[in-house]
Design a protein that fits this description.
mainly beta, about 10% helix, single chain, about 170 residues, three-stranded antiparallel beta sheet, seven-stranded antiparallel beta sheet
Length: about 170
């Protein structure tokens, strides 16, 4: 799969094009939480979502991002600092405004967003098991839960479960 904000391509093992779509975000018009996705919908979503997840927090320093610190969040026995980021229009992501929660060690703990391509539902994604790969700290587990209007997660449901390992930093 090749992802770009304005085009996605699914290729076969021989590099032949299996499917392609220009302006992939427009293909989500009218979609809701229960709408079916085709492989190109999934390619676009996975492309932008994983790019955001794997480049955080570095993406927040890129040109065009607006970042401000908002009120802290209390989670169990920790107080987390919260950065609200407004993404530039040229960057494909869940939504333009997203919140990133950092623990006392300055590592990411949670990422809140609205999934615009799927009806705009609210999500709270927790990151776990942060490990050192080549001098960079990466979470190896992510769990996204529905988020209520008061910013509380609904942990009775898991929307997305991602496990990553063997990062390679070059």
């Amino acid at each position: 799969m090749t992802f770009g904000p304005t085009r996605v391509v699914v290729e076969g093992s021989d590099k032949s094009i299996v499917a392609e779509r220009d302006d992939p975000r427009s293909a989500f018009a009218g979609h809701g939480f229960e709408s079916p996705w085709d492989p190109l919908h999934l390619a676009y979503f996975n492309g932008y979502a994983l790019w955001t997840y794997l480049t955080t927090p570095f993406l927040l320093a890129m040109p065009g991002f607006q970042v401000e610190e908002v009120e802290p969040w209390q989670e169990a026995d920790e107080t987390w600092r919260v950065l609200r980021a407004t993404f530039p229009l040229a960057i494909a992501s869940h939504c333009r405004e997203q919140d990133f929660y950092f623990g006392p060690d300055f590592l990411l703990r949670r990422h809140d967003y609205q999934v615009d391509v799927s009806g705009g539902f609210l999500a709270a994604q927790y990151v776990y098991d942060v490990r050192d790969f080549g001098g960079f700290m990466f979470p190896t587990r992510r769990r996204a839960h529905p988020r209520l209007a008061n910013r509380q997660p609904d942990r009775s449901r898991t929307l997305v479960s991602i496990d990553l390992s063997e990062y390679k930093v070059t």
